[in-house]
Automatic annotation (TrEMBL):
Membrane-traversing stretches: 41-59, 94-111
Pfam families in alphabetical order: VanZ
Organism the protein comes from: Pseudoalteromonas fenneropenaei
Keyword Ribonucleoprotein among record annotations: no
NCBIfam families: vanZ_1
Name of this protein: VanZ family protein
Location of the VanZ-like domain: 27-111
UniProt keyword Membrane present: yes
Keywords for the protein's UniProt record, in alphabetical order: Membrane, Transmembrane, Transmembrane helix
Length: 120
């Protein structure tokens, strides 16, 4: 029962994250705030790393399906950005999205295989 409640909390968090991220991805960005090259790629990577974490805890699905859903969301965001006048789509942003999600799952499996076994 407790796991089901926790899963529901993550599902609600996922919905909130998706709404917030979608709004941020179409918002006009003040480029004077960006302090280093490719900051947008780093942002995409970190956002999708976080989304993978929340999605993984929200739903018990095969990893390939999590990755497919996140890649679909990333592709959708890029299509949406191509339709917004002050934003532009980027294949490299999509790559950063996918790499962020892949990195979360790679890190999770390394942690599960090596670190968690040592502490148990």
């Amino acid at each position: 029962m407790e796991r089901e409640v926790t899963r529901r909390v993550y599902q609600i968090m996922l919905l909130g994250c998706l709404i917030a991220c979608t709004a941020l991805f179409v918002k006009e960005v003040n480029s004077s705030v960006i302090t280093f090259a490719n900051a947008d790629k780093v942002a995409h990577f970190l956002i999708f790393f976080g989304l993978a974490f929340v999605l993984h805890h929200a739903f018990r699905l095969p990893v390939w399906l999590h990755l497919l859903m996140l890649a679909g969301y990333g592709a959708g965001i890029e299509v949406l950005q191509s339709m917004v006048p002050h934003r532009q789509a980027s294949l490299y942003d999509f790559y950063a999205d996918c790499l962020g999600a892949l990195s979360y799952f790679a890190g999770y499996f390394v942690w599960r295989k090596y670190v968690r076994k040592r502490t148990a």
